[in-house]
Amino acid sequence: MAGFEGKVALITGAGSGIGREAALGFARGGAKIVVSDVDEAGGAETVAMVANAGSEAVFVRADVSKAEEVEAAVAAAVDAFGGLHIVVNNAGIGGEANLTGDYSLEDWHKVIGINLNGVFYGMRYGIPAILASGGGSVVNVSSILGLVGWSTAPAYVAAKHGVSGLTKAAATEYAQQGIRVNSVHPGFIETPLLTKTGITPGTDGYNFIASKHAMNRLGTADEVANLIVWLASDEASFVTGSNMTVDGGYTCQ
Ligand code: NAP
User: Fold this and answer.
1) Whose CA is nearest to atom 17 of ligand 1?
2) Cα 244 from chain centre
């Protein structure tokens, strides 16, 4: 999608999966990209892929659960490209699979720290930079599990529901100041987040998860990235505060 010439996009968790595909989508539209991740090798690969897509990127290592690192990533974006117009708060982890009554406090704090605090920090430091650059857009990556429940993922479900609420709160605050804030809610997507837990094609777990979607399949990272890029584009100029699904019909059933 064209229309991002002169724009700068900061994407967290852009060293893999959905974040990487979003980076490439913005790059193809002409945006300069700040690739942020804890995975330096993955981040470097995305930077090279952005160059192949005809744009320019820098890598900034930042753990989104640490406020000072997110603040530094935003500052690095402005230093590198002279402004900031788009923030995609995408970095996330799955966390332990366990019942609420058995869930480890360690993983509770870890998942909330990355999946919820990380999104807040991205807006806390990103929004002032977007305002200073004349306006833009924030896209937060939630999940269908930010809309409905799922057994054995209490921290993930709570964090992703929190992202839905944070999105609406910030959207109302900045609607008249030229910043739109939306969230995307993917169904199960075939990325390393899932495949490294053993959910791979041909397994019973994969087939069971596929069957929960009306389309009876998992999604791909680029199918989610397409929605992220559209939401950040001028084509979505009247869209703010939306929690949009991209879930192959999971939540409509
Ligand atoms: P992914 O391929 O694992 O990519 C996530 C990236 O974020 C990885 O490079 C990961 O690095 C990085 N990351 C992890 N912790 C971080 C931290 N503290 N600070 C900065 N970066 C960090 O996963 P994905 O599926 O693309 O997930 C992207 C987003 O989509 C997440 O918010 C996830 O919850 C959401 N989502 C995914 C699915 C799905 O089924 N895949 C469904 C709904 C929503 P490491 O690999 O080193 O951990």
Assistant:
1) 63
2) 13
